[in-house]
Input
Amino acid sequence: MPNSLSSIVPVNAGAEIPLASGGSSLKSLMPTSVDSTVPFADVFQQVIKDVDGAQVQAQQTVDRLLAGEDVPIHEVSLQMAQAELSLKLLMEIRNRAITAYQEIMRTQM
Output
């Protein structure tokens, strides 16, 4: 009986992994370098804009579906789930920032 494990190929950590949405890959979404000069407020504002954009796009897709356009139901469901997840992530970032601020304010000098 041949060794069935010999046909298993190791995963290449640097390989391009295509996304289900097509076109892009996980590697292209990763930052190539971290710019420590960007203020947190600017990053947070950009995240808020991105979440708002996801919410608007999901609502537009729902509106198109309700208007009778030929929109695949899985696309509507996927965009709604992505918008919801983005909002939950934003809320968690906000909660962690508030907790960190409160902890700093409690610190005795």
User: Anything to note?
Assistant: Helices lie at 26-29, 40-66, 73-106. Residues 73-106 form the longest helix (34 residues).
